[in-house]
């Protein structure tokens, strides 16, 4: 039987490509999306959907509990859901930190801890350290994020790090662009 993987933010730019790669690698793929998400890039017949309100702890916990009762847990979780741009500055904290906390807490609460939880964070969690000297950033460097986006991603990382016996990996990509991207090209063009 194929190992199962939940990819949150699956309808987004990065998440939709991870879904495709997981299908290519023969995982049993669950695309974690909001009920209102645009699924235009999620057309493969091999995709199953995990729809929930990630901003509502009770709704998310209920959805995960129903999934567990019907299908069991997930072997892996890749948490791509997040916001890079927000009209209301408080939304960075709500989406990038609080929704991450809700997901992790619900997985723990329901005894659905995966073999590995991958949190797609951002290089912005480090902030502009070593920028002037063009020195490489090292894992032991002290992060100094200077944007609300970076601060919210670092806060989520710190929360996950504080958990005992929770298997996690942080992935901190730099600016990402390519097909399906809606924001980066416009930002660099301006």
From TrEMBL:
Enzyme Commission code: 1.6.99.3
InterPro entries: Epimerase_deHydtase, NAD(P)-bd_dom_sf, NAD(P)-dependent_oxidoreduct
Molecular functions (GO terms): aldehyde dehydrogenase (NAD+) activity
Domain NAD-dependent epimerase/dehydratase, chain residue ranges per copy: 5-183
SUPFAM superfamilies: NAD(P)-binding Rossmann-fold domains
Gene Ontology, cellular component aspect: cytoplasm
Pfam families cross-referenced by the UniProt entry: Epimerase (PF01370)
Keywords: Oxidoreductase
Annotated protein name in UniProt: NADH dehydrogenase
Native source organism of the sequence: termite gut metagenome
């Amino acid at each position: 039987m194929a190992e199962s993987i939940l990819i949150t933010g699956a309808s987004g730019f990065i998440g939709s490509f991870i879904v495709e790669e997981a299908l290519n690698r023969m995982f049993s793929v669950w695309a974690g999306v909001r009920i209102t998400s645009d699924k235009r890039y999620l057309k493969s017949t091999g995709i199953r959907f995990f729809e929930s309100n990630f901003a509502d702890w009770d709704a998310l916990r209920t959805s995960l509990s129903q999934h567990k009762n019907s299908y069991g847990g997930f072997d892996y979780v890749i948490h791509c859901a997040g916001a890079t741009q927000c009209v209301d500055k408080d939304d960075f904290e709500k989406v990038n930190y609080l929704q991450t906390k809700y997901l992790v807490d619900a997985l723990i609460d329901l005894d659905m801890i995966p073999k590995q939880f991958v949190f797609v964070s951002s290089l912005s969690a480090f902030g502009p350290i070593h920028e002037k000297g063009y020195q490489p950033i090292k894992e032991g460097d002290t992060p100094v994020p200077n944007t609300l986006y970076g601060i919210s991603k670092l806060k989520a990382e710190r929360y996950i790090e504080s958990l005992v016996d929770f298997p996690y990996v942080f992935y901190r990509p730099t600016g990402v662009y390519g097909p399906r991207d809606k924001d980066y090209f416009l930002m660099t063009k301006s």
